[in-house]
Design goal:
Elongation Factor Tu (Ef-tu), domain 3, three-stranded antiparallel beta sheet, two-stranded antiparallel sheet, single chain, globular, 1 helix, 104 residues, mainly beta
């Protein structure tokens, strides 16, 4: 057993529940500029859960926009083999409601 496990900072998958969008929210942990107007947003759960999905699956996110939040669906661009975070890669479209959001 290594020091990180002994301190309780990391848990095994079988000690954790899978992420449930009705019970937990996502937290942005990284934003990567891929190209002009293209960013990858990386998320983790706010409750030490893991993600179970297949390549090509999607997530619907609530974007902070005015006058009211909007819902947008994005294909997951992260690998299911890394279950502790998920990522979406987004290209801003001129004039779209989400284009003004600096972060998702």
């Amino acid at each position: 057993m290594n020091a990180m496990t002994e301190l309780g900072l990391y848990r095994n998958l079988d000690e954790m529940a899978p992420w449930n969008d009705r019970l937990q929210v996502l937290e942005v942990i990284g934003v990567t500029d891929e190209a002009p107007d293209v960013r990858t947003f990386t998320f983790r759960s706010d409750n030490q859960t893991w993600f179970r999905y297949k390549p090509g699956q999607f997530v619907t996110l609530e974007l902070p926009a005015e006058p009211a939040p909007v819902m947008r669906t994005y294909t997951l661009s992260s690998s299911p083999s890394r279950p502790f975070s998920i990522a979406v890669t987004v290209k801003a479209q001129a004039g779209s409601v989400g284009a003004g959001c600096s972060t998702i």
